Amino acid sequence: MTTNEKIVNFFKDRFPLEKFFILDLLAHKEVPVHKLTFGYYTGGLTLLFFMIQVVTGIILLFYYEPTISDANLSVEYLANFIKGGFFIHNLHTWSSSLMIFFGITHFLMTFAMKSFEKPREFTWITGLLLLGITFTLGFTGYLLPWNQIAVNATKVGLQSVQSVGQLLPGPLAQIPKTIVSTFQGGDEVGQPTLSRFYVLHIAFLPLAVLILISVHLLLVQLHGMSQGVDKPSLKVEKFFPEFILKDLMAWTLVVGGVLVLALCLPFEAFLPYPLLEPFNALGPTPGGIKPEWYFYFVYYPLELLPFPVLVVLSMIIIGILVLSPWIFRKTSRKILTIIAAIMASYLFIITVFGQQIYSYLKP
Amino acid sequence: MKKTINILSFIVSVNILTTQSVFAFPQFEKFVAEHSGKPVNCAMCHANDAGPIGNDPGQLGSLTKAEMEKVNLARLALKPGQKVDSPILNKFGNHIIESIGTEKFTQLLAKPEDLAKELGNQSDLDKDGIPDAQEYLDGTDPLNKLNGDPSKLFVINVQRNAWLLIYMAVSLYFIYFGLTNILKYYKLNKG
C-alpha cells in the first residue's frame, strides 16, 4: 500500500461518507450535454460568491462598529490602517456584486431551460426566495458604511416601500408602513436603522440563506439536473467527477478574476467622492444619489413611470415568476429562452445605459 | 492683457488680505464638475464639504483666534514655496497654495483649467499613483487613495502588485491541480 493510499484510507475509515445517501445520489447523477450546458454552472458560482461573502464578512466583523458615530470611521480605519483590510473589504464588496450578477444569470438560465418543470416547482420557488434575500443582503449591506450615498439611498428605498401603502386598499395599506417602521426603528433613518440592518445583514438573512440553500441543494440533488432543452440530449456526462472537475475549473478562473479585482480596483472608485463622505444629517444632500447597480432595473422605471403603474407592474411580474411552473407548463423552451433573452436585454440596457435613457427622457 | 490680469489679481489678493469678508471660489468647482462630468463639492480642497463659509467645523465662523491667524498667514503666501496650514483648507487645498501661491491662484480664477498645469505631475498626496493635478481634472479625491479614475487605478495597481498577482495565480493553479488530482484519484479508486 502506497503512502497516498494509507492517507486516503485513514480518512475513509474515520469519515465513512459512503454511508451518506447523498454520495450515492452523486455517484448516479448525470448532467445533460447541450448548447445551454453552461447554465448548470451558474448556480455553483452564486454559491461560491456566497461562501466568499461569509468568510470575508466574518473577518470584517472584527473591525466594523455598528454605530452611527463610528461606522464610517471603522470602515475607513480598516481600509487604510489594517494590513490586508482594504483587500478583504474590497473582496467583500466585489463578491457581493458578483453574487447578485450570477444569481440573476442563474435565474435567467433556469427560466430559459424550464428548470421549474414538474417536479421541480419548489426548487424554483426556493431559488426565487434566495434571489430576493440576496437583493435584501445587498440593500442592508449598503447602509453599513454610513456614508452619504448609503444613508440617502436607504432613505429613498424605504420611502418607496412606504409609498406602496397608498395604493393598497383598507387595512392592507398599513402593511408597508409597518414593514418600514419595523426596519427603520424610528421616524428617520438613524441608529436604530443601522442596528436593525446590521443584525439583518450579518445574522438573520445569512441564516435564512443557509436554510433555503440547504433545501434548494437537496432538491437539486434529489431531482437531478433538469433536461434543459426541448429535445432531450442523448449525450450526458457523470456529475462526479467530470462535471465537478469542470466546475472546479470555472471556480478557479472566477476566483482568480475576483482576486485581481479586489487587489487592483477599489469598488469605491466608481462613486463620486462627495458620496463617500461620512453622512452628515445637517448638511445638504449631495447630487448623484443612486442605489447600487443591481437595483437600476427598479430605480430608473421608478424615476420615469408613475408610481402606481410601477407597483402594479411589479406585482404582476412577481406573481408570474412565482407561478411560472404552472403558467408556463405547456410553453416550449424556445419561447422561454426568448422571454429570458428579453429580460436579460432589459436588465443589461437599463443597468448600462439607464442614466443616458433617463437624461434623454427627462432632460 | 497680462498686465490687466496681474492688476486684477493684485486687487483680489489685497481684498483677501485686508478684509474679514469670505472668499469662496466656485469657479474651480464648476470647471471640475463640467470637465469630469462628475458631481463634486468643496471637500476637494476645503476642510468642510460646504466650503469655508459658515459656523461648522472647518468653516470660518468656528475658528479660534490662533486658527484665524493661520488662515491669514495662508492668505499672505503670495508666492509659491511658503508652508501654509490653513484650517479652512484640507491637505490638497494647502498644497495648492504652497505650490503656486495666492497671487497665481487668484490669476487662475479666470482660467481654472490651468490649475492642473500649474500644479504639475509631481505631487500625489494620497499615493494612489494618479497625480493630484490629474485627480483635479478627473473630479476625484486627491486625498483618498481608493477614489480615482477606475481604469487608471486598475492599471497602476496591476503594475504595483504584479508579483503578488503572479503568486496568487501560481497558488490558485496549485490548489486547482491538487483538488483535481484528489478527485481523479478518487474516481480511479472507485473505478
Model description:
The complex is a heterodimer of chains A (363) and B (191). Chain A is globular, with a radius of gyration of 23 Å. In chain A, helix 7 runs antiparallel to helix 8 (174-184). Chain A contains 14 helices and two strands; from the N terminus they run ααβαααααααβααααα. Chain A has 363 residues and is mainly α. Chain B is mostly helical and 191 residues long. Chain B has two domains: 2-145, no CATH class; 161-190. Helix content of chain B is 57%, strand content 0%. Chain B has helices spanning 2-18, 26-36, 65-76, 91-107, 115-119, 132-138, 150-160, 162-190. In chain B, helix 1 packs across helix 4. Chains A and B meet through helix 10 of A and helix 7 and helix 8 of B.
Give me some keywords for this one.
heterodimer, A: about 375 residues, mainly alpha, two-stranded antiparallel sheet, 2 strands, about 0% strand, B: about 190 residues, 2 domains
Please outline the helices and strands:
The complex is a heterodimer of chains A (363) and B (191).
Chain A: H1 3-14, H2 21-28, E1 30-32, H3 39-61, H4 71-81, H5 85-112, H6 121-143, H7 148-163, H8 174-184, H9 191-223, E2 236-238, H10 239-264, H11 296-304, H12 307-322, H13 324-327, H14 333-361
Antiparallel strand pairs in A: 1-2
Chain B: H1 2-18, H2 26-36, H3 65-76, H4 91-107, H5 115-119, H6 132-138, H7 150-160, H8 162-190
Helix pairs in contact in B: 1-4
